[in-house]
């Protein structure tokens, strides 16, 4: 660990802190329908969209209609994406002549993945997807799945803020305003910033260049296995050219982070020099992952009239973030104890040292650890280093971050409503301890609300643990494992955690493009998104109906450091009680065995 | 119910055109206008031929060149097939590979400890950089092979170190392709 590494981590959090208020105020104005500086451009466009789609922008929805609209939109747009994937070979902007995505289970998995804001990738971008599919299929869903998430968070906040009302807003209006006001203008600026750093943005066919020094490579048979001669020696061939994948990357890159989507244009995601060429592009992308979610804590305070509550929630998130990033940075900087002593893993002025397998030199340890924490705190899932090659404890943190529900800033919108579920539980538990009916910002929290909140808390681990358990014992599950020993269990656990949590990052050694994994992970992603949203909206609708109770002496204040501590406690206790047994058999066991010198 | 279904269909069509087609095409046009070199991948032309991208690594294994990091992209530095090994920290395949490579380099370079980035694969498989430590480590071999003084080669390395961006972002690094091209300019390939 170096002083500069810590400085970069603190600098990042400082930038996020700085953007929270301006972005939060802006979003509150957008969703209250107040004037903003981009109205002259986007208000006419918004009206045009409503005219073309027959939306009545003054119509208010009950929670159930809000849910139905969101579900219909997701179902229709997912079907269209599936069709684009399958018909890719007949569609334009396909200079590499990629055929339709097959088999069906891969297309289903990908369609479910991008519709649910997961962006799990069982395919490799540059060898599978045409420019049209990337733009109109995948990048498009980066926008609308994020916009839907923001809309849902705003609806939930309205549920808290409104009194004795039946409705919580209009899904179409919230979704369109999120797209046009919260996503699009920032994406225009962010995309161009990234291009200025070297992220490519073109429609040219892949380039072929002549290597400076031709290389000898093993020749492969048609089935992918190395070709051997009569003596059993591998047959070598000379490769003198390099094919360089191109495409409209930057326009997908920025929304990938700003909307906490995470699906890389290329297989290597934000580790690829064309997606993330410089330390500055890296900072811009990390900043984009947290910005909206951090801003939403301020929007929460603003719309519910308790700004200090917004900051109390922000503080809980920031503390959990710092705990995570410190652990990963420490674990990765220590390096791998199984490497021979003649390998220099020490940090110095000329190298960052540490566990460099699966990491890029320009990012080193600090920025790889920082990114891994951010991307799993949020439900982003973009990566700039391979989590599968992290040390056991370094890889444990991203896994735990997702298991806690991605509420440490979290996905755009999803992090907010996820955290609010924990806020309700924290208030409920505090109420139980003092023996009073719990209240939250003037609303009594009653049996119905807590039951729905518990549904959200329980559905999530049920999906993860059930699918993981089956995969860990059945041959069609264990066949996919790349790294044997406890690490293999970690790979499976991470896959379903990432799927159900709509994260999208992976311990990517696991071979997942099989009927079993494509299908079950697709189901996990759909369940992890939509089964959580319905009880969440039910709570919102129920809260909106209640009348306001003025705070009394028995009210547990939600604006104090004590509240922040209770909230962190509830998050950690729920997470630990649920997942500790599984974690102890995976990363924790592997850590102990690694320091005992075991390999697998 | 039916109304929201109809809106869903119309909304999908309208937003796909706006966000999935118009937005990326406008961004492509703007990027090509404002940053044509960056937007097209910073291709390097030598003697009228495109010989690579400034920010995409190439394989170098001959003794007279500075070596890049090991690569798991396709058959190695396949820039149409990026990726890492995904080998876990306790995987025997990883430990054996690293320790064997380390032993070879350790012996070759008069028992100097081997910088870890030189024997570990990068995340993209296309890492254009090595650390300054890994570059200095290779100076004796390159200098011997090219029959020039280690001081001269060391000076070339020093002049190719890219410091942290703005002095504090990221890590110091050396672009292998640019360093080797400079080497070729100094002594001929």
Short description:
The complex is a heterodimer of chains A (600) and B (189). Chain A is built from 18 helices and five strands. By secondary structure, chain A is mainly alpha-helical.
Describe this structure in words.
The complex is a heterodimer of chains A (600) and B (189). Chain A is 61% helix and 4% strand. Chain A is mostly helical and 600 residues long. Chain A has a two-stranded antiparallel sheet. In chain A, helix 10 (307-334) runs parallel beside helix 18 (561-595) and helix 16 (486-500) crosses helix 17. The model of chain B has no long low-confidence stretch (mean pLDDT 95). The longest helix of chain B is centred in the first third of the chain and has 33 residues, at 2-34. Chain B folds into 2 domains: 1-40; 41-187, no CATH class. Chain B has a 3-stranded antiparallel sheet. In chain B, strands 1-2 form a two-stranded antiparallel sheet. In chain B, helix 4 packs antiparallel against helix 5 (150-159). With 189 residues, chain B is mostly helical. Chain B is elongated. Chain B has helices spanning 2-34, 36-39, 92-108, 132-146, 150-159, 176-187; strands spanning 43-46, 49-53, 114-115, 129-130, 161-162, 173-175. At the A-B interface, helix 1, helix 2, helix 3, helix 6 and helix 7 of A face helix 1, strand 2, helix 3, strand 3 and strand 4 of B. Strand 3 of chain A pairs parallel with strand 3 (114-115) of chain B, so a sheet runs across the interface.
